[in-house]
Amino acid sequence: MAELRQLFNSIDPSPFGEKDLDPKAEEFVVGWAREVPRTAPLALLVYLDRPAGLQNETEALRDAVHQFFRGRSEVSRRRLHQLFRLGRWSLLVGILFLGVSLAVGSVVESALSGRLGKVLQEGFLIGGWVAMWRPLEIFLYDWWPIRADIRLYDRLSVMPVEIRCTGTDADAWRRDWPAVPAAWTAGTGPSSPAPSLPR
Questions:
Q1: Cβ(9)–Cβ(64) under 8 Å?
Q2: Is residue 67 situated within a structural domain?
Q3: Full-prediction pTM beyond 0.85?
């Protein structure tokens, strides 16, 4: 890529260390990470079509990427917590509804003799078990993908990040992200060492 800032969401006004990755960059990194075995080590290597600029831009990029995926992991943990809370409430409602359905079905069967009473009782029984479908779906299936996302984001939040630079335009880093204060741009040239990013 030509510039480091292409990795980040251009409309996110947050400071560099808190800025979101560009959605396409996130999709690429996460999609690539999903394809490798869970036990395989992960690393992110960024190729820039410019010479190295600020002294600690690799560390700044690494911290920003780690912070982003830590945030994604926390969001997924909250989703999982909310899903289980919904599952508990759904289970409570489902059990209550199932109990009421069984009781009503039994009363209806006693009150109405013959085939009609039996059909209505079976209908209430089926309705009660249908009410149990959502909590069973949550506790048996829905939490797996979220848990897998948490594990993946945790791995991405600690992976090594490296920048490899090519190119000959010594001033290209001045146009790249993170933005450089005007005083640095005026006082730093190809013959003087590049300043470090503030932390």
A1: no
A2: yes
A3: no
